[in-house]
């Protein structure tokens, strides 16, 4: 993973305007709104303190961008941060999410003053649930906010004191999942 840069506009705009990608997230953005959102995200990477971080997930051997990751909703009092991932269609179900979230957990706990990393996703998004469970996340509960047009949301989290890298995530395992 690497920080987003100006050259990532097409990837960002594609993911946020693609109905299939946004199916479990929210309504797809218009191209104009996605372009504005990208400019805002890019500018936000320079703010201090940082409110939101966007990273590009790259395939290791080719360095091809396959998705985006964000860290947002930093809560200093609760010592927590929310993560989110989006992948281009050809990269889904190929092991990238598991590998990326594992690396993200390691980096967050090594570099940030947080004790909890959490994710929010649609209750019926079984593939994400499996990945989160496989890397050590635990169900945190259904979100009381509101049930959106995209279904009920829930949250899963991993806490610093309970997390250790999954031993089953080896290079051969990831290759076999792809």
What does this structure look like?
It comes from Steroidobacter gossypii. Residues 1-137 form the N-acetyltransferase domain. This is GNAT family N-acetyltransferase. It holds the Pfam family Acetyltransf_3. The protein has a 7-stranded mixed β-sheet, with helices on both faces. It has helices at residues 9-17, 19-22, 31-44, 96-111, 126-134, 171-177; strands at residues 2-3, 53-58, 65-75, 80-87, 116-122, 138-142, 153-159. Helices cover 33% and strands 26% of the residues. The protein has 178 residues and is of the alpha+beta class. The chain has 6 helices and 7 strands, in the order E-H-H-H-E-E-E-H-E-H-E-E-H. It has a single domain, classed as Gcn5-related N-acetyltransferase (GNAT) (Aminopeptidase), CATH 3.40.630.30. The protein is globular, with a radius of gyration of 16 Å. Strand 2 and strand 3 form a beta hairpin.
């Amino acid at each position: 993973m690497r920080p987003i840069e100006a050259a990532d506009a097409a990837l960002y705009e594609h993911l946020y305007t693609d109905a299939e990608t946004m199916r479990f997230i929210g309504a797809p953005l218009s191209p104009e709104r996605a372009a504005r959102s990208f400019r805002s995200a890019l500018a936000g990477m320079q703010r201090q303190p940082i409110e939101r971080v966007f990273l590009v997930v790259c395939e290791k051997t080719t360095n091809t961008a396959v998705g985006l990751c964000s860290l947002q909703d930093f809560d200093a009092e609760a010592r927590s941060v929310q993560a989110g991932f989006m992948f281009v269609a050809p990269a889904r179900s190929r092991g990238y999410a598991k590998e990326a979230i594992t690396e993200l957990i390691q980096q967050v706990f090594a570099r940030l003053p947080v004790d909890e990393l959490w994710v929010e996703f649609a209750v019926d998004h079984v593939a994400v649930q499996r990945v989160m469970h496989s890397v050590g996340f635990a169900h945190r509960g259904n979100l009381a906010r509101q049930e959106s047009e995209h279904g009920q949301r829930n949250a899963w989290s991993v806490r610093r004191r309970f997390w250790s890298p999954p031993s089953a995530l080896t290079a051969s395992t990831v290759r076999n999942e792809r």
